[in-house]
Structure formats: structure tokens, C-alpha cells
Amino acid sequence: MNKAEEIFNEGRYEEASLLYEELIELEPDIRSHYYYLGLCLLFQGQLEDAQITWWMTLDESESSINEFVEFIRSISREFALNAHRQDMAIAILEASVGINLEHDIVLLIELARFYSLNLRHNECIEIGKKYLELAQDLPNQIFATYLILNSLLAEGCQWQEIFALADRQIELIRTLIQTNPTSLDSNEACRLFSATSFFSYINDAPAKGRILQNQLFKICQNNLQKLYLQLLKDLTRNNIKENIKEDIKEKKLKIGYLSYCFRKHSVGWLSRWIFKHHDREKFEIYAYSLLDNPNYLDSVSNFIASHCDKFYKLGHDVTEIINQIKDDQIDILIDLDSITIDLSCLVMALKPAPIQITWLGLDASGLPAIDYFIADPYVLPENAQEYYSEKIWRLPNTYIAVDSFEVLFPTIHRSQFNIPNDAIVYLSSQSGSKRHPETIRLQIKIIKAVPNSYLLIKGLSDQEGIKNLFTEIAESEGISSDRLKFLPRVSNEAEHRANLAIADVVLDTYPYNGATTTMETLWMCIPLVTRVGEQFAARNSYTMMVNAGISEGIAWSDQEYVDWGIRLGTDENLRKQVFWKLKESRKTAPLWNAEQFTRDMESAYEQMWEIYVQA
Fold first, then answer.
1. I need a surface site. Which of 9, 144, 510, 532 has the fewest CB within 10 A?
2. Which CATH class is domain 3-182?
């Protein structure tokens, strides 16, 4: 590392500027000197000078543009790994986009990604719209539309625009499926993995949505397998059945778990228990962590790592990930992310393990390379196999269980919100993407029918936009906005769970239910009202309530949802019965028995392996 770069990395940008100017005089043909000088100027507040410095390096050649774009992508990602420098990463991209290169589209994608990760959704939407204007081909049009849709959903308040854009996205995907492209590059194919993520939030039509997703993901997998042909050949040699010598009863199965959520995240909180309870005499347990910052560890990461034979911090190099899984000779690989991250989809599409499973993430992906999707008797309807490409493997009770949740002390009280002590308090705690206006209307109908009741609203979203959305619907139903209270976010999950005690009844969302939030509600012994649908996302709360031993609050129609909400709000004895049922359920219910759940999963793994060996 030269002296200038060393000083730059220390944040001494004025000194580094002088050194880079000297280097440019000595080595005027080395473009990276100009790139770093531009960064130094940018971080000193000299935006135009930075852009001019970068612009000077660009000529008519494709190589000069590509080199600059790759440098900006690389340096911005490097800055983003440090939480304290993420604003600087965004500043780099904003400045580089301002040069108006022909290849702005690559940097626009990167900038939109950073805006989204930093919850700057309005800016992401604007960048997404610019990207969509520049996009000339279907893959880019689809990804640009996804970026806009994703941020609109995160804000949770502009539903007419969401519905219109969702219809457009469906038509774009159908057109791409009809054209069946066979020469997508890796970036194009991977970006398509996120294209259908809006389905479950918009409506409850799994047959229609999943068939479209299956077709799209088959195209993605076919293109990726062509691009990584040599890697696939190596994997095929590794996975041929002739190499399996051990008898099924004697073999110690190697189980691998793949995720970017082995941390304080819903997936991390829920999955940690299976690592704790695995029978290490019968199974070797491997975890492959895919965080942007591979060195990041928190209490959940450390907990999981402590219960693994090997815990890898791998970052985003797909070849490294694939080769590590291959070298470990993993028998069964479980993806915990589904379509929430394209890297997991890419890894699974290349089939690094003989048996591959999706569990716990955002429904199944539809990748042909996935063999099984873990479910239970309730979370999918009986006919679901008709539209799943994966084989649905139903565990006997529940597809998820935990032993407990950490809970601190409440930090909110009714008096803070001017709510009388004798009032009935309903709570809805979900992200903006789950705030479907039709469900909000049902919740307002419940408030309207229950005297002296209030609705508390909490969750990640555009707070002002969500407030306006609820208020508008309340006023249309003749309810004063004074009966709506908007709760602030809290610093940690244990505090959030303690604060659930402010509620008499929790109202679930539809068509996308709560998952972790539902389990937390049940753990805190609070009655819950859920609307059961057809898709996986619309049946999470249903299976959790059944596996916690209660049926009170399970609604099979909009009217039943309203009826249960009213009944639980007006019948104090019923609420007490539900409370005590949930309290007692901690002793015996499947939802709170992670050890038995782990045995059920292990039994599934053994049966899957036996099927594979004997096929």
C-alpha cells in the first residue's frame, strides 16, 4: 500500500490530496490516482472538483468507463461495511452518478441498493424511476420495477401505485418467460430472483403467483448453470452416488445451513434453537454465513457458532462458498433465506449438495435445484403440492419451534398515550409492507364496534404516510383519529416483547401474517386475531396458534376476523381463558418444544437421505 492510500484510509483527506496530486504528475496514466484524488476532494466538500477529476480519466473507450464504474462499486461497498461510513458510501455513488455516464445504470442500481438498505425509500424510488427510464431490456426493466415496488411496500402507504406497478411487473415477467432468454449474465439472472417478492403482500393467490415464480426461477437457474459450467462439473463429480459407500444406518450425516441472517434477525432468533438441540452423535453441523461484512458477529451469531462443528464467515464470493460446501462434503444443505437474497439463490441453483431444502425464509423459491420445502399440516393447504416445484415435506406438528424469548421490562404505559386504564387496547405491530388497506379497514371496523377501544400501530414504515393512511380509513368509517396511537420503535427486541403487554388483543395482518411477531405475541400470552388464507404467508399465524393450543381468534373470512376482534375485545373472561391457555402451553405445546422439533427435522433429514441413496 502506498503512502497516499494509507493516509486516505486513515481519513486524512487533505494530506492525501496533495500526495495524489504528486503521484498524478509522476504517473499521469494511472487512473486510480485520479479516482482517489476525486474521493479526497469529495470528502472535503468539493463535489464539482471531484466530478471533474473523475471525468478527466474517461475517454471514448469502454474499458475506461468500466474500470471507473468497478472502482466506484468496490470502494463504496468497502465503505459500507463500516456502519459509521455508510453515508460516505452513498455520497460516493451520488457523486459518480452525477457525471452522467453512459453506464450510469450500473451505479444507479448500486445507489438504489444502498438507499434501500439505509431505509431511504423515497430516494430509492426516485433512483429506481431514473433506472427504469434508462432500462432498454426486460431484465433491467423488471429489476428497476422491483426496486420501486420494494421501497413503496416498505413505506406501506401508497397502495394504488403499488397495485398498478405490481400489475405492470407481472406483465413484464410473463413477457420474459415467453421469450425464455438463454444468454443472461450472472447479474441479470441474480437480480431476477427478487422480481416476484411482492406477490405475497399484494394478494392471496398462491397458485397463480407460484407457477409464475417457478417458471421464472427455472430460467434463472438454466442461465446460471451455463455460466458456472466448470464449477458444476466439479460438483457433479463430487456428488455422484457411486461415491456413497456408507450404510444409511452408520453414516453421520453432514448438515449445512446457509443464510445471511445468522445474527439479530427474525431468522436468526428462530433458527438458533435447532443448532442448540441437534444430536451431534448422529449429525455434523455446518453453518455458512453470507453477511456483507463477514467479520460481523453478535450474540445470536456467537450462539449459533458455538453449537456448530464449523461456522464459516464467507462474505459474497460464490466460488468460495460453493467450494467450501463441496470440500465439507455436505449431504443436506438447508437454505434459510429463500428469495430474500440473490446470493443464496445463486448458491442453491448450482446444487453444491446432493439434497437441498428451503426452510424458514420467505416461502419456497421455486428453484428446480431445491428438492424439499419444509412445512407442517397447517401452514400450507392440502392441495399446495399442485403449484410447488419442490416436494413439500410436512413435519408432524410445526415447521418451527422455540424454547423461549428474551424479555426485558416494559418502557411504555397507557398514560403516555392518554389511554384510560379501563380502555380496550388493540395492537398491530408489523412493517409497512404488510399494511394492506383492506385489512386496515377490518381493524378499524373492530375499533368502531368496541366502545372505549384504541388501536396502537407500530412497525418499520413511512411513519407519516402510515399515519395518514390509517387516519383516512378511520375517518371514512366514522372513527376519530384520536383512537389511533402510533408507537415509537424501541432499541432492542427484548424491550419490544415486554411492551406487547400494553395490548389486550393483537390484530394480525393479511394477506401477509406475522411470523416472529406472532410467536412473540403468543409467548407473551396475548390473544391474537388472524385471518387465514391460502398462501404460506397467510397461514403462519394459524399454524403457530394451533401449535400453541388455541383456536380462539382464528378467522377464515373477513367477517370472522371482525367478529373475533369484537368478541375478544368485549369478553374479558374469554381473554383470560386465552391468556391461561397460552401460559399453560409453554409446558407442553409443540410451538415451545424446540428439542422435539429438532428431532422431527432430524428424522426428516434421515428419511430424505435414505430416499436419495435408494433412488
1. 9
2. mainly alpha
Residues of the chain with CATH 3.40.50.11380: 229-403+595-614
Which strand (E) or helix (H) includes residue 259? strand 253-259
Give Cα 346 to chain centroid, integer Å.
16
CATH 3.40.50.2000 in the chain: give the residue spans.
Answer: 414-592
What is the reported pLDDT for 102? Answer: 53
Give the sheet arrangement for strand 505-507, strand by strand: 484-486, 453-458, 424-429, 505-507, 528-531, 554-555
Q: Report the residue count for the chain.
A: 615
Weakest-pLDDT range from 25-29, 156-160, 291-295, 607-611:
291-295
Q: What is the pLDDT of residues 338-366, one digit of tens each?
A: 998 999 999 999 999 999 999 998 899 99
Cβ-count burial of 387 within 10 angstroms (0-12 exposed, 13-18 middle, 19+ buried)?
middle
Helix (H) or strand (E) holding 305: helix 299-306
Task: State the amino acid at position 327 in one-letter form.
Answer: D
The answer to pTM > 0.85 is yes
Q: What is the pLDDT of residue 114?
A: 87
Cα–Cα distance between 255 and 145 in angstroms, integer? Answer: 37
pLDDT at residue number 248:
54
Question: Distance between CA 227 and CA 521 in Å, rounded?
Answer: 46
DSSP 99: T
**SS3 state at 614:** helix
Q: Which residues are paired to 456 by β-bridges?
A: 427, 485
Rounded to the nearest 5°, which phi and psi values hold at 312? -105, 135
Per-residue b/e over 557-576, b at no fewer than 16 CB within 10 Å?
A: eeeebbebbbbbbeeeebbe
Residues above pLDDT 90, as percent of the chain: 74
**CA nearest neighbour of 563 among 440, 436, 446, 441:** 446
pLDDT digits (tens, 9 = 90+) for 43-77: 999 999 999 998 888 876 778 888 888 899 889 98
Q: What is the pLDDT of residues 221-268, one digit of tens each?
A: 999 999 998 888 777 655 555 455 455 556 799 999 999 999 988 898
CATH code at 229-403+595-614: 3.40.50.11380
CATH 1.25.40.10 domain extents, the chain? 3-182
**Cα separation of 254 and 324, whole Å?**
13
Contact (Cβ atoms closer than 8 angstroms) between residue 454 and residue 424: yes
Peptide linkage before 352 cis (omega within 30 of 0)? no
DSSP code of residue 590 = G
Q: What is the DSSP string of 183-213?
A: ---HHHHHHGGGTTTTHHHH---HHHHHHHH
Closest to 508 (Cα-Cα) out of 464, 459, 443: 443
Domain 414-592 in CATH 2.20.25.110? The answer is no
Q: List residues bridging with 555 in a β-sheet.
A: 531
DSSP state of 389: S
